[in-house]
Amino acid sequence: MVAILDTEVELDYPLGHHLHCLVAQLPVHLRRGAHGFALVDPERQWALVRSVLDLVAEGEQNLKKLHFLVLPEGAVPAARLDDVLEIVDRRFPPSTVTAFGMEHLLLREYRALLSRFERDGAPALALVQRDVDAGDVLDLPVNAACVVVKEASGRIRVFLEAKTHPFRGEEFVDAWQDLYRGRHVWLFRGRPACFNFMVLVCLDYLWRDLYGSNARQIIDHANRLFFTERQTLDALFVLQANPKPEHRAFRDVLSGFYGEYLEDTPGVRETVTVFANAAAGSALEGVDAAGGFGVSQVVIAGHHKLARFETPEFSTDDLGGAPVCRLRFGAATRLFYFNLPLHHELDPRSSRLPLKLHAILRREDGRWTKVTGERIAEDLAIPCARDLRSRPGK
Question: What single string gives the DSSP state of each residue in 326-344?
Fold first, then answer.
């Protein structure tokens, strides 16, 4: 099974105040390369990613409060990793986390990056080296994700993960073209704020075999955290380039993750799960993606209050009766800026909503501009008629 590696990072977040997250739902166009998938036009893709990084660095659209920036799977050209690190190092505020997927690397390149950042990723490097020592695997493709943490002191830390479970376009009868299976995921232990989070790559959220699953292992690890230290998993970010973001398999796992059907799971009861998908218009060569992609989502447990809404840009629901509350975004190229809910029991005051959307931005004439303006927060604070009817005394 995949190893969960705990690591402490210095993130000085305000106590008792919610944190802010920006999901960049960008198009990703991938073609089959000599090894795995490569971006069709890396320079054009980098220009789009760079525009998001510049927006965050300049603090426009109230982004000075941003704590987490999340981009899709495969969104960043591998050759531009150092450019991303330079922008984060020189221009991002302290206590920020940037998570993104890169186009496929060779395992030898992935291992070289782990060696370069060995100060942060020594346990991960040891797991990869064990595979290298066991066989001729250095030319296997790797679907890699990168998490860049700019600590409160200003120090940059870089963590890498490899996708543990391929989708059908990454799996081949020829073992030498098959995707390398990652051996670890990171559990980031934020200090002094005690905010704990993880990052997964797409189907890693669903992966299981006859003996266990990634989700079950995450739940067990978070429960041990709760019972030994009274801490929990606060956020789980899932990077996707997924043409079927609402496949029933995701609903099934979310139901099991939050349902507590067979036992209490206090370690993940208040976890916020963020699915950051590629935008509509994305393409994977050889994969039929008609009408797919988009629909990034934020999911919290069903005991929270989340009024029902449906607009062209976003809607809320319970995934057809699942024990969750979901904020579901549209499919177009957008930046979604929202808060990560705080831990709390059900608040008896009807005006309190745990999850609020602060802004939606679209790309227009080379700039990111607001779609719905300042009324987003007002709209989310007004329950729909059906919710009013369902409340006691209404």
Answer: EEEE-SSSEEEEEEEPPP-
pLDDT at position 393 is 38
Residues 307 and 51: their CA atoms lie apart, in Å, by 33
Please provide the size of the chain in residues.
394
CB 163, CB 182: distance < 8 Å: yes
The one-character DSSP state at 131 is H
Residue, of 169 and 228, whose pLDDT is higher = 228
pLDDT for 211 equals 79
Which of 112-116, 212-216, 303-307, 370-374 is most confident? 112-116
Burial class (CB in 10 A: 0-12, 13-18, 19+), 216: middle
Q: Contact 299/276 with Cβ under 8 angstroms?
A: no
SS3 call for 222: helix
Q: Which residues contact 218 (CB under 8 A, 6 or more apart)?
A: 4, 198, 233, 236, 268
Q: For residues 276, 281, 285 and 288, what is the CA-based torsion angle, rounded to 10 degrees?
A: 90
Model pTM score: 0.91
For the chain, list the domains and their CATH numbers: 3-390 (3.60.110.10)
DSSP single-letter state for residue 64: G
pLDDT band at 33 (very low <50, low <70, confident <90, very high): confident
For residues 186 and 122, the answer to whether their CB atoms sit within 8 Å is no
